[in-house]
Every structure is written in C-alpha cells, then in structure tokens.
Design a protein that fits this description.
Layout: H1 16-24, H2 32-38, H3 44-76, H4 86-135, H5 138-142, H6 146-188, H7 190-197, H8 200-235, H9 238-246, H10 250-273, H11 276-302, H12 310-351, E1 376-383, E2 396-403, E3 408-412, H13 419-425, E4 434-439, E5 442-443, H14 449-453, E6 456-459, H15 470-475, H16 483-492, H17 496-501, H18 519-533, E7 537-541, H19 549-563, E8 567-571, E9 583-588, E10 591-596, H20 598-604, H21 607-624
Parallel strand pairs: 3-8, 3-9, 6-7, 7-8
Antiparallel strand pairs: 1-2, 1-4, 4-5, 9-10
Helix pairs in contact: 1-8, 3-4, 3-6, 3-12, 4-6, 6-7, 6-8, 6-12, 8-10, 8-12, 11-12, 16-18, 18-19
Length: 625
Amino acid sequence: MGGPGGGRGGFRAVDEEAQRRRNASAPEVPDLGRRVAALFRPYRRRLAVTAVLVVAGAAVGVIPPLLVQRIFDDALFPVDGSSPRLGLLGVLVLSMIALFVLGAGLGIAQTWLTSTVGNRVTGDLRVRMFEHLQAMDLGFFTRTKTGVIQSRLQNDVGGVSGVLTNTVTSILGNTVTVISALVAMVLIDWRLTLIAVVMMPILVLVQRRVGQVRARIAGQTQESLSELSAITQETLSVSGILLSKSFNRQRAESERYAAENRTQIGLQVRQAMSGQGFFAVVQIIMSSVPAVIYLVAGLFISGDGPAITAGAVVAFTTVQARLLMPLMGLMRVALDVQTSRALFARIFEYLDLRPAITDRPDAIDVTAAPGPLGRIEFRDVSFRYPDAGPQSPATLDGVSFVAEPGQHVAFVGPSGAGKTTILYLAPRLYEPAAGTVLFAGADVRTLTHASIIDRIGIVSQETYLFHASIRDNLRYARPEATDAEIEAACVAANIHHVIAGFEDGYDTIVGERGYRLSGGEKQRIAIARVLLKDPPVLLLDEATSALDTVSERVVQEAIDEAARGRTTLSIAHRLSTVVAADVIHVVSGGRIVESGTHAELLALGGLYAELAAQQIAAGRIEGAV
C-alpha cells in the first residue's frame, strides 16, 4: 500500500540494542534544573507558605535540646550546688511539651501543602506530556513503540513524583535543621562541634560519586520498564493474544517477558543497594560521635582547660543526634536528585520533540479558502517517508490529480504502489517532499490543520473501536449528538437493525478494539460514526478488503450511502467496489500510470485491465470450488 509499515515507503529496521543504550544514557537537556524549577511556578505562593512552615518547624525542633541544658544545669543539678529548682523545672518541661505539640502541628500542615503541590506538579507534567504527544505527527507514532510511549508517560513521570513532592521541603527543612543544629552546637561548645563535623566534607565527596552511579542505573531501569511495557502492550492486547495462540508462541512470549523481568529485577536490586554502604558508613560515623564526645568531655573535665558541664554534654549529644537524620536526609535527597536527573531528562526529551506538522502563524480556516469546499488537488506531489533509506525509491513521484466536489475518485494498483500515502497527504497527516496539495483551492500548509480534519471523514481497513458502548463510540465523532441523530446515522449505515437486536442495544459494550462484533458490523459502525460527523470529504482506505462477500455487499451499500453528495477518495483492492467511480487512477511505482472510468480503462488494455483479468480469474476459481 505504500504505507509507513512496509512497501516502498517502509521504515528501516531499528537497532533496538543501540537505541536502548542511547536511552539508558540520559539525554543532555540544557538548563534542566531551571526547567524543573519552572514546574513549580504556578504554585509559588503555596511554596512560600510551605517554606515558612518548614523553617519554623526546623527552628522549633532545635530548641528542646537547649532547654535540656537548662534543665540539667539550672533545674535538676544547679551548677552552684543548690537543691533542684522544681518551679523552673516545671516551666521548662511544659515549654518542651508545648514545642513538641507546635512542631507536630507545623509538620501536619507542611505535609498537606507539600503533598498537594507535589502531586499537582506531577499531574500537570503528566497532562502536559499527554497533550504534547497528542500533537505529535503520525510519523512519530509509526516509528515508536506504544509501550515505550506509555512508559515515558507513566513510569518516568511516576518515577519523579516523589522528588517533585518531597525534594523542595526536604532540602529546605533539613538544611534549616542542620544549620540551626550546628549553631546550637557551637553555642554549647565550639570544641566539641569541630570534632563532630570533621568527617562531613569527605562524606559529601563520596555522596556525589554514589549519586552518579545511581543516576546511570536509574536510566537503565526506566529503559527496561519501557521494554516491559512494550511487551505487555504487544502481547496482552486481543490482537497479540490471538497471534501468540495462533502460532503456539505463548511460552516464547512468557520467556521473553521473564527475561526482561529478570533484567528489571537486577537493576532494581542494584538501584536499591547502590549507596547503602555509603549510608551505613555515615550512620556508623554519626552514631559513634556521642561516644567520642563523652571521651573528650571526660578529658576536658579532668584537665586544666575550660570546664564543661553535664548539661552541656547531654544537650550537645542531643543536638548531635538530631543532626543525624536531617544530614542523611540531605544526602539522600542529593542522591535522589541525581538519580531523577535521568528521568527528568527523558521527560523533557519528549517535551522538546517538535511535531513535523504544525500550523503557520498566519494559517487560515478552510472557510476562508478561495476554492469550493470539497475540492482536492495534487500538483506534481512527491513524497518519501522520513525514515526511509536514502537509496530507496520515493513513495510518490510527481502525482497530480483533481477531485471535484461530490466526485468519487478511486485509486487502484499493486501493493506498495503508494495509494495509502495519497490518502495520508490529502488531510496533511504528512507533508509532501515536493509539489503542492490543495484543499478547497488553498495549499494545505496555509490552512489550520484542525479546520481540514473537521471537514474530512476517514474509514480505514482496520476499524478502531474503544472498549466502550456503541453509543459512546459513535459520539466520539460528535459528543453533542442526540440519540435520534445517532440512530439516523446508523440507519444510513445499514447497522441500526443489527444494534436494535442486541440485548443492550446502543449500550452494548463492544470489547477491546470491537472484538465482540463481526468485521462487517465494526465497519458499518465506523461508517455511521463518519456519517454522524457529516464531513464534505470522505477518505476510504480499502474499507471492505477484509470482509467476506456478503459482508462486503452490505458494507458497500453503507459506503455508497455515505459517499452520496461528498467528495470521496477511495482505495480499492477489489475492483468491483469502484467500478462506479467517476475517475479511477491506477497507481504503480509511486506514479499515476492510467486514469479513466472503469470502461475506459478496460478498453485501454493496460495495468487496470490486467488487474481486472486477475480478479475475474480468481472469482472463477472461487466459483469452481
């Protein structure tokens, strides 16, 4: 057919291993940090409130250890040797409890705000990517696995949701806690503070190295998830299941999935374990600091230097203990940010893709075009699919024709001749490499794409129906259509009486891709859907080629009804479906080699006559059998 999947316009085979290696090494995205920060811009007021709560909560959390010092040195064991001061002790204890209650309240408010902002940013990013993918050109989807696209949308965005939800507050809260704890430690005893933080610079350097390793593993993990999604989408769809069962390949498909799953398990384990040794060392060092502090405090007390009180030692170790979790939190966040960099890069790589088909700034609506609505013209159009090999011949080469309003123009010819490509170019699903496609007398590149599509109805060989009711599938063409309009379209498509015979009528669920219906029923519902849209132009891509003779006749009657009064471009495998066309163009090797009516082409004795003779002979053989 000359379509993107094969024939003259087929794409070159993709080196999947090379592609996976490229994907695993995250793409370089300029200003990645700035672009991630820009995601939070719509929520900057909430972030400001969150920041205040985080700072307040971190500050409140450091005050109790300072009160501990006063409890020991002023209330329980006064340094002047006097008896315990119970009144002061009660005030200090109540103050500590009040601070704990305040900190808990601030934490609840902070969690609600961060969760709200983070999840909204994640949702915005997911919708933004979905909308961007909706705007991509047809060529992008013909060369990209559906499972890979799904993985970018679900796994990659899902993978950064935790970072978007917790990173800002975690960095801010832990930073404030660490700084305030260090200040408190210096106020208690600067000598002990030096001992407590001497290892921190080394830990930061090690953390950066661990983060680089985790980022690389994260990219490989997401690529493996993409492959798992692709396998699932391909093999667990109705079509995939039918194929695997038809060739008894269920075991092979299970083994393929299991192999990729083993890869995924290994990567997940590597990702989980990377950095665990580092964090264990950090925890050992930080947990050992109090023991060292006790030793040093003993030397200070027994020596001739400045004295240190028991309250100072208890308060210092309490503050230092509070330093462990936020410090490890900061390091974990730093690792998470480095890890998520690969995921953000993959997300923005897709967001940076530019559709091949876009409206010009000065594009006009079809209603402003100079010619009559429904007129389609090709002027010396040539086309080659974007990923076709440089040595492969052009799919179309100098094609010219005119379809006047209300005219039925048919295209016939051998497979791979370029017929389907003509139908792709008419509504500007692809751009011609040379020449001009005109719609209503205007170059399609000067018209808004939406206004062209709104005036075209397409019925393809492979009908796609959603896993929904018949009514919902029909309303996809025109959501505001009334039940009466839906029934009228189905009557015209010769399918209403069939639907009325179903137990649930128009509320019958058709199943995935319409597999609960016969091929003829699906095609007539597709035709009814186009009739409901009521476009002036109809494109038919071998709409009856996959049907039996009886179904073909019924569907053809529906097509004839749909085509009445509309400009119709049709591709036919069976010549019997186009004998009444106003003009038949015979396409071969990307060129129109013959044109005329059915009778004129038979009399010409060329390729059309040869194709007709072959089909007549095949019909006789079928009749003999």
